[in-house]
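Exam revision sheet. Question 4 asks you to relate a sequence to its structure. Input first:
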Amino acid sequence: MPIDLYRSLGSGPCTVVQLVAAALDLELNLIDINVYGGDHLKPEYLKMNPQHTIPTIMDDGFSIWESRTIARYLANKYGKDSTLYPADVKLRALVDQRLDFDLGTLYTRFSQFFYPQFTTGAPADPALQKKFEESLGVLDAFLEGNTYAVGDHLTIADLSLVATVSSLEFFDINLKEYPNVLRWFDLVKSTAPKYEEITSKALEVLRRAAAQLKEKQKSCSTAAEPR
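Answer key, C-alpha cells:
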C-alpha cells in the first residue's frame, strides 16, 4: 500500500521526502497541495496536520510531518539495513546534527534571504546573503575529509542537504567558492536514486521563479536610472 505524500511542487522539504523514499525503494502516492488556494487550511487537512505544514505523509492511518522527521521515520521503519540512517550511536548523532544544521541553519538562511525576493519583490539583503554564505562555508568545513555528509556512504543527511543546495543552481551563489560542497554535490546527484527524475520538475519551478526574480530586478534597475 503506497504512502500518501502531501506536497507542493518546488518545495525543497517535499523533495527530501521523495529522495528518501526512492533510496528506500518505497512507493509514494503524490498528492499536490495548492497552498495559494488554501488546500492546507481545509478541515480534512487540519485534522491530519494541525500545523497545516507541507510535506505531510499518511502511512496506513499514521500521519507525520516535518521533512527531516519523515526521513527518520521512513528510514527507521522501512530501511533494510542501517546504511541510510546508521545504527552506530556516534554516526547517527552526526547524521542528526547535519539534519538539524540543514533545518535550523542552511535551509533557514536560504529561505530568509531568497524567499522575500521572489515572493514580494523585496531587494536582496546583503546581511542575509552574508549569513547564508557563512552557512555554506560551514557545510564546506563539514565535508572536509568526508566523502558524503557523514563518512563514506549516502545517508538521509545528504538527501536533506542536497535538496537545499540544488536550489542554488538558479540563483547568484557561486559554489566554486566552496570546493568540498561542489564535489559532494556532484557525487550525490550521481548516486542518489532517481535524483534527476525527482528533482527535475521541482527545479523547473525554481528556475521559473529565479528568472522572474531577475527580470523584476532588471525592470526595477532600469526604472531607477536617471533620464
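Marking note for examiners. The first strand starts at residue 3 and ends at 7.
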